[in-house]
């Protein structure tokens, strides 16, 4: 077969592994005590670095990878590498100079990160200026998503995609598909981007068979009204291929540990540093205005659809429909102090106890009332996917304008789209970004915060 000009060099990733291991071992020799510069320790740091990298996908960086995702991989690699080094030193050597190991690990990750980012940006610049390392692509179909992808390819040459042709499938679809296949083979096309709204199942199978048999990459563009997974993953049960719609980062043990550790630390900081003194003040104000409990609890659906009691500061007068009807604008049930704590999201703070107990996470899809979950599950495509991860106090949808009352179908559909994007693209850095945006929006004030 001909040379794949659109692919990265097969030597690039092994070269990255080798260079990083050289940096780690050289720095260990220079910065650490002689007692540590033994074969066993150098073998340990090399093997542990590779194992961590495999688990966090440290070297899984592609032309379409976002810089935020790269930084998240670096952060995860750094945290876990620090933990393993301290575990080794504490168990085997009773090492009592933590500053030395922190200096070594930090300098190593900084140098490796600079090299990693340099290669990433160098390749982007190389594509934009010299036209190298390009993938030749065609698009099949019409619609808004097709036009947006066309503009993306044309306006972002540094990503390394060369849009060669567009088949709109107008007129005789069968002839158009045959022409597309011939064009792909004759012009050495690397990837086909196909709009699902313009083809039927039988035609979709033909595209899959064609790309499989000719070693081409096939990618799909969903309908405008559909909520589809971004990732498709293939596993094998024996020799039987089984396709799953998504690859969820939080299914990996190492990511679960990182996220749970962050949740525990962050919730303890809020509970001890804020709720310890804020709760008595709010308790006085809430009970002064209306009789009833300080806290309000409501059954909601969490991970794997399990129900749990979600806690909030009570913001409404006690009423029989609190578990059935969402709060609306100018809702007469809301008290004066309740209006303030809802506007500033202070009413959500008791949910950090839910986080500490393990029912929720700091960041994740917002949990709905049980009655609403059942309603949306029947009417909104892919709604139940959001229950693959723990619900959160805040989430990606909420920071993008989809918080509070669901006024129409568009609100809940877009909320689900953001939730699916989050669970498929989770990273610790994304969580930190969402937390920052949540605090910023609370200070600024939001239209739907009522």
Automatic annotation (TrEMBL):
It is a multi-pass membrane protein. Keywords: Membrane, Transferase, Transmembrane, Transmembrane helix. The chain crosses the membrane at residues 12-33, 39-62, 74-92, 104-123, 264-286. One of its GO terms (cellular component) is membrane. The keyword Flavoprotein does not apply. Residues 259-443 form the Bacterial sugar transferase domain. One of its GO terms (molecular function) is phosphotransferase activity, for other substituted phosphate groups. Its main location: membrane. InterPro entries: Bact_transf, EPS_sugar_tfrase, Undecaprenyl-P_gluc_Ptfrase. It comes from the Bacteria. It is found in: Membrane. It holds the Pfam family CoA_binding_3. Belongs to the bacterial sugar transferase family. This is WcaJ protein. The lineage of its organism: Bacteria, Pseudomonadati, Bacteroidota, Flavobacteriia, Flavobacteriales.
